[in-house]
Structures are given as structure tokens and as C-alpha cells.
Specification:
The protein is mainly β. The protein has no helices and 15 strands.
Length: about 210
């Protein structure tokens, strides 16, 4: 049966915005000025994808026995707070073997990332999720998983970022930097280091 991540195992963060919309004055002939075009609203091409492949969306308990399959409730309980809108969940491609991820809009108007680490726990294929606030829709969302059964010391991060972001850079606890390529609005890293205290993933555009 799917479950929401517990705090000791999952930490969440959001990416800083890659750009902010605003107006800028530019000089024009005759000494006047005119406002520049406002920056386009952030978008996520992956949200227009076909389906939530590899993820069962249902309110029915997952059957016991056999190979656990990642599932997500079609109607999360109210106590769960903000959560992904099931009808908007779409599969995204990650470059880390064994990990599966999805993107979705949140019930409050933000953007969400869902992650399955490929490690069933007590017969349950838990799916972890993190959603941004509506104000930070253009900043993306990141989910972090550690204390993974049978993988001591392993830290996994995965996230979604807007169109135009080519990579994500994270400062780690040992002072090094991990750079993860973005594909299909998604990125991920798997290693033995937590992010440095207070550090957030940094979006790298262009390239």
C-alpha cells in the first residue's frame, strides 16, 4: 500500500528560481523609455506527457504477495496536506539506474516530484513526494531519501525543474559539489553525502 514519507527518512527542499519575471526600462529614440517584455511564465514540458507509466494510481490497497509495485492514492487523505493531483502525474526519465520518478501539479497549485527508490520495505513499494508552494512553481521541487534498507549510508535526491534548466548543482556536506544533468525536466543523484546544511540545489541554465 502506498505511504507518504516519514520525516526521519525523507527531507524535502525546493530549488531557487532560475529567473524572476519583472519590468525593465530601456532607452528608445527621442529620449523616452518603454517597459521590456515580461519574462515568460515557467513551464514544464513533462507535465504534458502521456501517462504515469510504472505507477499504479488507486485507492485500493496494494495486493500482498509477488513483487511490490509502486502505487499512489487517487484521493490522498486530508491529513496528508498538499499533495500531487493524481490526474496530472506523468513519468519522467532519470539517469540513475533503479530509480523511478514522476512529475505532477500539486493540489495547492505548485509542482511536485514523486520518487520510488526501487527498495520495497516489508512488502511495500513506498513512493516519496515533495511539492513546492504555488509561489515557487517556477522553482521546481526536490525530494531526498536516506536510511534506505540494505543500503547503509546511501543518499538519493531527485527533483523536477522548469524548461530551460540544463543541470543542477548541489553543495555536499564534505564541501564537494555534485552536478546532475537534467532530462525530461528531471534530475537525480545517488551517493554517500547529504547536502551541506542549508544548501539548496542550484539550477544551471543554457549549455
Amino acid at each position: 500500500m502506498p505511504r507518504f514519507p516519514s520525516r526521519p527518512r525523507t527531507l524535502t527542499a525546493v530549488l531557487p528560481a532560475a529567473a524572476a519575471a519583472g519590468l525593465a526600462a530601456v532607452l528608445v529614440a527621442g529620449g523616452g523609455s518603454a517597459p521590456a517584455e515580461p519574462a515568460p511564465a515557467p513551464s514544464y514540458a513533462a507535465l504534458a506527457g502521456g501517462e504515469a507509466g510504472g505507477l499504479t494510481i488507486s485507492d485500493s490497497p496494494a495486493p500482498r504477495g509477488g513483487t511490490p509495485h509502486p502505487t499512489w492514492p487517487a484521493h490522498p487523505p486530508e491529513a496528508a496536506g498538499d499533495s500531487p493531483v493524481a490526474s496530472t502525474i506523468r513519468r519522467v526519465a532519470l539517469g540513475v539506474p533503479g530509480l523511478s520518478a514522476w512529475i505532477a501539479r500539486s493540489a495547492a497549485g505548485g509542482v511536485c516530484v514523486l520518487l520510488y527508490d526501487g527498495r520495497p520495505v516489508e512488502g511495500v513499494a513506498a513512493v516519496y513526494a515533495s511539492c513546492s508552494t504555488p509561489e515557487r512553481f517556477g522553482a521546481g521541487a526536490t525530494v531526498q531519501v536516506s536510511e534506505i534498507p540494505n543500503l547503509p549510508g546511501r543518499v538519493i535526491e531527485a527533483g523536477v525543474v522548469p524548461d530551460g534548466v540544463a543541470a543542477v548543482s548541489t553543495t555536499l556536506a564534505d564541501g564537494s559539489t555534485a552536478t546532475s544533468a537534467v532530462s525530461d525536466n528531471a534530475w537525480a543523484r545517488s551517493g554517500d553525502q547529504l547536502p551541506a546544511p542549508g544548501a539548496e540545489p542550484i539550477a544551471i541554465t543554457g549549455g
